[in-house]
Design brief:
The protein is an alpha+beta fold. It has 13 helices and 12 strands. Helix 1 runs antiparallel to helix 2 and helix 1 runs antiparallel to helix 4.
């Protein structure tokens, strides 16, 4: 049975009891009221009429012939004749009427007073009998009404007692019937919400509480599914995060607010030479006392007092020695982790992160740049010193005219060398600054570029007695390129080939077309060659390739600038070389449309 039906039936039962009690009381009172009215109408008025007749008879006793008392007697008897309700009362009224008529005849006949008085005695006796008859009936009906009232009172008391018992029973049982399943439902919900094994709410009855329990079970099932999905998503995200941390190329240590190590990724463990068990769960203060490396690692963290409110310290560089003996440089950065608590709306301090970033390449590049600056300073100083000495000789009046011309030619050569070096520096500075170098790309003939470049380096070729061979087919189509930048690249390649070629060796410049949309220009020398592992390195800025031939390398910028010039025009620049087999530098240019 549903709770709704129970409540309705309980209220209906109380309503029925109240209506029954009220209805019975109403009808009992109405019946008593009707009985009282019937007694008043039937007996009390007859007694009242009898008293009026007795008073009239007493008045006639003193004056038998007086008309007013006689009229009063006749009027009271007439009313009594209209109010006959009891058995035998009609005969008494008829007797009184006959006796009154006899008395009136005596009065009319002027009978003796003794006869009239005797007739009045008869009238009085008949009136008393009529009053006694109504009085007995009145007493009898009054007793019946009292008995009826007593019965109604008992019945009302019984109904009232029954209603009280039923009402108290409903007061006790109805809340229990409603609250007991709710308490059981609450207990089941708490069991499901607790970490226990319960996963569903029990359904005892098919009522409203059972419907709520069924809905809760559906909700709990949905929540279980969502929790499973959330757990799977959290597990996936945790695995992904752990995978990211494990595969970071930076060392990472995570510490809690008490400076206890919570996590150390493989890079950090390898750098510190420790297993995870030797780091995780230990305090930074304890670890810093074990080795100088750990002390340097945790020094920025331990040096801060009140780390929660402290500012992030500046990064420091730590030096590590790898197992192969190579020195590595790592930048140590300390960061404090804060998190916003959604419940309190406050920002809370939750830990520290120590990260080790490999800056070895930047360190080496800085060293290379420093060496380059020293080298370029030396290379700039040498021609300047030569020019200064030449100017001093020119100022000497004892110098012969032929010698003056030779010195002037030398000053020109040194000046051209300085201009080339400064041009390279300007070009690389523009490229480093991100400034766009303007290219005047247009259709050009390769013969024009090749001949100009060869004419530029011909004195150097003749000075080393090199045998220059030129392979330039006349049927080559025009290329789409910048004449100045392309000629600069070819001159740089020829200058390198001349520098590294032995005296009297062969030097070949070749141009051909291998594809419908591409032209190739190459410079091939008979120098010492380049090992394959250095083929890409020579195109990097400030790079130096070790060699055992005694040749002095350049600034390390020419090939880098040359490759950027060629790639900016849509081409490629590369080298094909082996040690002791010479070098073959090639670059491509797109065919003009």
């Amino acid at each position: 049975m549903s709770l709704k039906l129970k409540i309705r039936l309980s209220i209906a039962l109380m309503l029925v009891l109240l209506l029954g009690l009220g209805g019975y009381t109403f009808f009992s009172l109405q019946r008593l009221e009707g009985g009282a009215r019937g007694i008043q109408r039937a007996n009390f008025r007859s007694v009242e009429y009898g008293e009026q007749m007795l008073r009239a008879l007493e008045a006639l006793q003193d004056r038998p012939t007086a008309q007013p008392p006689l009229q009063q007697l006749r009027r009271a008897l007439t009313r009594e004749a209209a109010n006959i309700t009891e058995p035998g009362e009609l005969e008494l009224v008829d007797t009184l009427t006959q006796q009154l008529a006899d008395y009136q005849r005596l009065v009319d006949d002027r009978a003796p007073d003794a006869a009239q008085v005797a007739q009045l005695h008869q009238l009085r006796a008949a009136t008393h009998r009529m009053m006694q008859l109504n009085a007995r009936s009145f007493n009898r009906q009054t007793d019946q009404a009292a008995a009826t009232a007593r019965g109604a009172r008992r019945t009302v008391l019984v109904l009232l007692l029954l209603s009280t018992v039923v009402g108290l029973s409903l007061v006790v049982r109805l809340p229990r019937a409603v609250l007991r399943p709710l308490r059981r439902l609450r207990a089941d919900v708490e069991d499901v919400a607790s970490p226990g094994p319960a996963t569903q709410v029990s359904i005892a009855k098919n009522d409203e509480v059972g419907a709520v329990a069924l809905a809760l079970n559906r909700a709990f099932g949905y929540m279980q599914d969502q929790r499973s999905v959330t757990r799977a998503a959290l597990a996936t995200e945790r695995s992904r995060l752990e995978s990211l941390i494990e595969h970071l190329d930076e060392g990472l240590l995570l510490l809690d607010p008490d400076r206890t190590v919570l996590l150390a990724n493989p890079v950090a463990r390898e750098l510190l030479g420790r297993e995870a068990a030797a780091l995780v769960g230990r305090r930074a203060e304890d670890l810093s006392q074990e080795t100088e490396l750990l002390n340097a690692l945790f020094r920025p963290l331990l040096a801060q007092e009140g780390a929660q409110a402290g500012t992030t310290p500046a990064p420091v560089t730590l030096t590590f020695t790898r197992p192969d003996g190579e020195t590595a440089y790592y930048q140590l950065t300390l960061n404090h982790i804060v998190s916003r608590n959604r419940e309190t709306g406050r920002t809370e301090f939750v830990g520290h992160i120590l990260s080790l970033r490999n800056v070895s390449d930047f360190k080496k590049l800085d060293e290379v740049k420093s060496n380059y600056l020293a080298t370029i300073s030396h290379e700039l100083k040498t021609p300047l010193a030569s020019i200064k000495l030449s100017l001093m000789l020119l100022q000497d009046e004892r110098t012969e005219p032929e010698e003056r011309q030779r010195i002037a030619d030398g000053i020109g050569d040194e000046t051209q060398r300085l201009l080339g070096m400064v041009g390279q520096l300007l070009a690389v500075s523009r490229l480093d600054a991100g400034a766009e170098i303007q290219f005047d790309v247009q259709p050009i003939t390769l013969a024009q570029v090749v001949n100009y470049a060869i004419d530029t380096v011909r004195p150097q070729v003749e000075d080393k007695e090199l045998r220059l061979r030129l392979e330039l087919p006349a049927s080559l189509p025009a290329a789409r390129a910048d004449v100045e930048k392309t000629t600069w690249v070819l001159i740089n390649l020829l200058a390198n080939a001349i520098r590294y070629s032995p005296r009297g060796a062969d030097l070949c410049v070749r141009a051909d077309q291998h594809a419908a949309h591409e032209l190739t220009i190459s410079v091939q020398d008979c120098g010492p060659g380049i090992a394959p592992e250095h083929h890409e390195r020579i195109f990097q800025r400030f790079s130096e390739v070790p060699n055992t031939t005694g040749h002095k390398g350049g600034s390390g910028l020419g090939l880098s600038i040359s490759r950027e010039f060629i790639e900016a025009q849509g081409g490629r620049l590369w080298v094909v070389s082996e040690p002791a087999q010479g070098s073959h530098f090639r670059f491509t240019l797109p065919v003009a449309g």
